[in-house]
Design goal:
By secondary structure, the protein is of the alpha+beta class. Helices cover 28% and strands 29% of the residues. The protein has two domains: 4-118, 2-Layer Sandwich (D-amino Acid Aminotransferase, Chain A, domain 1), CATH 3.30.470; 125-279, D-amino Acid Aminotransferase, Chain A, domain 2. The protein binds pyridoxal-5'-phosphate (PLP). Pyridoxal-5'-phosphate (PLP) is lined by residues 35, 177, 179-182, 200-201, 203-206, 243-245.
């Protein structure tokens, strides 16, 4: 099943060129993107993803996109997508090297691309510690920039080690996040997730879990965690989970190739997230 592609105003053949050779999105990785889960033919939590997209564009000094245009493109892509479509990606690049760094210059239009295809088949979460760090002081920390090569290589290393997600520390030696997921550590009857100051992405799944857990009486809170907390997970005195659009809330079953037991609160969080997500396709 090939991806359905909408770019610069209309549906396209998947292989059709749509980006200029001079687009900074291509030449320097200056662009932003969002990945949404597609549930029952709808892009889950699209409003939250569009809000984060707007924040990422502003943070990178790129012109805003019209949310109605993005919604129309998303609708066109999903209408053209076969059953079994599980993921949707929205990408925005500046289009031209002299595109304005703020909104408003006539004629300069960012390039909007929306694609959809099957969700990756992953199975249980298998996490691998990698030696690289997330720089929490980077200007793109906390934003979903297309400059993703470091994450691709980290994930590739994790895959070579038999995993399907890489775990990154930040420069302060704290647990930060995965390449495409936020982390949860279950310890002493509480689920803990690193705060945004750790440099992690403000994950839509993470934020929804924090809100829904609070309503449900499930103890989840933000707290800085030392990287060494993963040794506790390896010893079995703590448990690990991942949150992300293409994983929902996923208890980790293998750490660095060794079995680790999913925690009961992590399992509860996974069930809570599934139920709430099924009940509301676009939670406020
Ligand atoms: C680096 C990073 N952290 C966390 C996440 C999880 O965010 P979300 O729950 O919005 O998918 C992602 C998503 O792709 C990501 O790329």
């Amino acid at each position: 099943m090939t991806d359905v592609v909408w770019a610069a105003g209309r549906l396209r053949e998947p292989a059709e060129p749509v980006v200029s050779a001079l687009d900074p999105g291509l030449t320097t990785g200056l662009g932003v993107f969002e990945t949404c889960r597609v549930r029952a033919g709808r892009a889950f939590a699209l409003t939250r993803h569009l809000e984060r997209l707007a924040g990422s564009l502003a943070a990178l000094g790129l012109p805003a996109v019209d949310p109605d245009e993005v919604r129309a493109a998303v609708a066109a892509v999903l209408a053209a997508s076969p059953p079994g479509t599980g993921r949707l990606r929205i990408t925005v690049t500046p289009g031209a090297p002299d595109a304005p760094t703020t909104t408003g210059a006539p004629g300069a239009r960012p390039v909007l691309v929306v694609t959809a295809g099957p969700a990756p088949v992953r199975g249980p979460a298998h996490a691998v510690r990698v030696p690289w760090v997330r720089n929490e002081r980077s200007p793109v920390a906390g934003h979903k920039a297309t400059s993703y090569a470091a994450d691709v290589l980290a994930l590739r290393a994790a895959t070579r080690a038999g995993g399907n997600e890489a775990l990154l520390a930040n420069t302060r030696g704290e647990l930060c996040e995965g390449t495409g997921s936020n982390v949860l550590v279950e310890r002493d009857g509480v689920l803990l997730t690193p705060p945004l100051a750790s440099g992690c992405l403000p994950g839509v799944t993470r934020a929804l879990l924090l809100a829904w857990a609070a309503e449900d009486g499930l103890p989840v809170r933000e707290e800085p965690l030392p990287w060494a907390v993963l040794d506790e997970v390896a010893r079995g005195s703590a448990h690990l989970g991942l949150t992300g659009s293409l994983r929902d809330v996923a208890p980790v079953h293998l750490l660095d190739g060794a079995p680790v037991r999913p925690g009961p609160l992590t399992e509860r969080a996974a069930a809570l997230f599934r139920a709430r997500a099924d009940a509301d396709p676009d939670p406020a």
